[in-house]
Amino acid sequence: MRRYISYKRVSSQEQGKSGLGLEAQERDIQLFLENYADTPYEVLGEFVEVHTGSDNDRPQLKAAIALAKKENAVLVVAKLDRLSRKVSFIASLMEEKGLTFKVAQMPYADAFQLHIYAALAEQEKMFIASRTRAALAAAKERGVQLGAPIHHIDELAAAKKEKALK
């Protein structure tokens, strides 16, 4: 029996609260399992994380990888960018001894194809950053005040201090 570990990630609390991104990932993983997984199969664990993909130090991802390696299970993600948008990080996962992963939206992708898609994901990350900078510059030109309103700065500082002391 083939065993699987699922990993889903969204980048922000708002995305996590809405559940829409997680639902789509769950659907993709379920479709993969029903149509492409070795049968019979068993899902040993499901890991969900609300964390930016630019930070590769993610506790739930580490736990999912550790369990997959321990149980000789396949780590399955909906899309490659749920793991990372960095070619080097994806490549390191591909080379990690004892770890096998599959991408639900690319069930037949081999190592070469995953490298190509990882490069495209990294390029998309750069495009997103460029579009964001351009949009912020255009807003600033129109006179939009960027950043936190000055009249709330003391309240924000107090809230951050209180959160840090907890």
> Please, what is the average pLDDT?
90
Strand coverage percent? 15-25%
Give the number of DSSP strands.
Answer: 4
Radius of gyration: 19 Å
The residue ranges in which pLDDT falls below 50 over 5 or more consecutive positions are none
Helix content: 40-55%
In DSSP terms, counting alpha (H) and pi (I) runs of 4 or more, how many helices?
6
Rounded to the nearest angstrom, the distance between the terminal CA atoms is: 46 Å
Q: Mind describing the biggest β-sheet?
A: 4 strands, parallel
The gross shape turns out to be globular
- Structural class of the secondary structure composition? alpha/beta
Q: Helices and strands, in N-to-C order? A: EHHEHEHEHH
Strand order of the largest sheet: 2-1-3-4
Can you describe this structure?
- It is a single chain.
- The protein has 6 helices and 4 strands, in the order E-H-H-E-H-E-H-E-H-H.
- The protein has 166 residues and is an alpha/beta fold.
- It has a 4-stranded parallel β-sheet with strand order 2-1-3-4, with helices on both faces.
- Helix 4 runs antiparallel to helix 5.
